[in-house]
Amino acid sequence: MSTTTNSITTVVGDYLAAWNARDAGTRRGLVERAFTDDATYVDPHRSGAGHDGLDTMIAAAQEGLPGHHIEPNDDVDAHNDRVRFSWTLVGPDGPIAVGRDFAIVGADGRLQDVTGFVDPVA
Fold this sequence. Notes:
By secondary structure, the chain is of the alpha+beta class.
């Protein structure tokens, strides 16, 4: 599979928007647009699988981090069926963590498997 930067940038945008969407219906729609039906996600703090599991995981993260949001760092890099991108978690008092995610892109262009790494801001 050949991944074009423009299409994967849109998918990554939907992925990050899902983490910020506090409305359950909006979040679920973004999860379905960003992830394949059988997608998995894992980072040091959480994991989820399938649309139901991923939506539940993101909702729980939002509940645990009220007033926080994710900002993209504009460095989506893709080749073949792989993509990497970074983001910043911003709290009420400013940035608190930076993350870098690595993903496998499914045949339909959505994210199939995401592994996230998170580091606190010094």
